[in-house]
Structures are given as C-alpha cells and as structure tokens.
Amino acid sequence: MKSGFVNLVGIPNSGKSTLINKLVGKKISIVSQKVQTTRFCIRGICNVNLTSKLKSQIIFVDTPGIFFPKRRLEKAMVSSAWSELNLTDKVVFIHDVKKKIDNNTKEIIEKIFQIKSDVILVLNKIDLLPKEALLKKISEIENLYNFEETFLISARNGSGCNKLIKYLAIKMPAHSFFYDENTISDLPQSILASEITREKLFRNLNQELPYNLTVETQKWVINTDKSINIQQTIYINKQSYKPIILGKQGQNLKRIGTLARKELQKLLGCKIHLFLHIKFKKNWMDDPSKYSSVGLNYNA
Fold first, then answer.
1. How many beta carbons lie within 10 A of that of residue 254, not counting itself?
2. What pLDDT digit, counting tens, does each position of 223-246 carry?
3. Are strands 55-62 and 42-49 parallel, antiparallel or unpaired?
4. What are the sequence ranges of the domains in the chain?
5. What superfamily would CATH give domain 189-292?
6. Which numeric CATH code is attached to 2-171?
7. Nearest to 232 by CA among 185, 264, 268
8. d(CA 261, CA 256)
9. Is 210 helix (H, G, I), strand (E, B) or coil?
10. pTM, whole model, 2 decimals?
C-alpha cells in the first residue's frame, strides 16, 4: 500500500475546488466565481489500484487561494493554506492558463519553493486557450521555475486528470491507508450542508451579495422516515444585506433554499427539509468560534 497527502495550492479562482471534486469523483468543495470562496482546508480521498497487488490512497487537500490578506478572516484563510504545505508529501501548484504570471503570483510561487523544493505544476482550463497561446504560456512558466513535472488539464471536463492521479499515486510513500476506502472526505456533513447553502447564495446573488457572510448549521435531526430536518442561520454583518438575500416577498431566499435542498438530497441520498434564517451579527467576523469550528486560527 501507498498513502500520502497532496496539497492543492494556487491563487484565488485557479480551479482548485473544481479539480478536487473531479479527482475525488463527488462534490466535497463548493465552487463559485467569487474570489476566496474556499475558506478552510478540505480533504478529499482518492483510491487508486496501480496493479493487482499495489494500491495507493491520495489525500488531496484543497486550500484557500493564496493572496495578500488584509482582514482577519482573510489572514486566517491564507495562514491555513501556508501551514498545510509543511504537512504534505507533494505540492501541486494550480494556475489558470488565462491569467498572467504577475508579480504577486511569482512571489507566491517563490515562497512555495522555499518551503517545498519539488513542486508539481498543473495548468488548468487548457480548453479555454488556443494551442499557440497555450504553448507560449507553458514555455513562459517553465522557464521561470524548475517544476518537478507539468500537467495540462481541464478540471471542468476532466481532460488530463487521470494522468495527474496516476503520477501522484505512484509518488505516494509506502504507508497503510489513512482512511477507510469508502471515505471520500473528512468534512462533517453539517459543515458540507452549510457550505452548499453558502455556494447557492454566492451563485444566485452574484455581485449584489457581500462576500463577508457565513452560514452555520444549527440543528440536524434525523426523522423516523430517514428524512433529515436541517436548520441553518445565514449570518450578516450589515442590516442592509437582509433585503438583498430575502428578495421581493422572500423569493431570493426561497429559491436559494430550494437549490440547496435539492443538492443536499442528491449528495446525502435522502429527503431533506431545509429551514433558513437570516441573522444580523455585526461582529461575526471577530467571533473566535466561527474560526475554530472550521479549523482556522483566529489569531493568524
């Protein structure tokens, strides 16, 4: 047996969450166009049969996008991403081929190399770039850094992902499996449910929605018919956000609740009764419990 940890790092919106969902084969990390959607580290487990006698387990760690933070929550997120680098066997830097290798990106890559010398490069969204432009991008980034290996993928359609999985599976150290073979993530279902609702808020309210809201699952009750009652609170830090989320006659919140409920039913395989409440809490971003519950360091 082989088993080890692989850290997926990159700047915000490089496609890390889409990739981990594709590699694991099931949705465990939420995805939206808003930057810094992923707020904490999420582990996804992928089991690979290399030969009839050799199995490998890869524990992918989806980290928050790395950038230069200003606010407390941002600092905690980025600190979480950096701290994982020291704990993993392999580091994969994911870059969106449509984006420039700007000075910020260079600074981040150089810092990663200071921590880990053998970094794997994954160039994502190759389906969105013409071949000539793609070749130019590959040459540009490979001339700057000595990556262990380069993979060209599309996390959205899965192109190139099998090659990446096989390479990483072989590179894992000899070790018994850390997780049961039926486990795909260590994320508690209550937190996944909160994340699904937060994703629906981000996706359906777009630019109108403030980034600094959070969702918490307050109650999780399994009924006699195996259905689940889930009560969630959407925390906002300005009263003016409430009518945006509610919409006219509560239509926005109703639509978001329906979308979240349907996805949760699909993921959990049972009937879901979802109840959403909006609560104004001015300083929720300064509440240590909101950080510790998802493994973030309040004092980062």
1. 13
2. 999 999 999 999 998 888 899 899
3. antiparallel
4. 2-171, 189-292
5. K homology (KH) domain (3.30.300.20)
6. 3.40.50.300
7. 264
8. 8
9. coil
10. 0.83
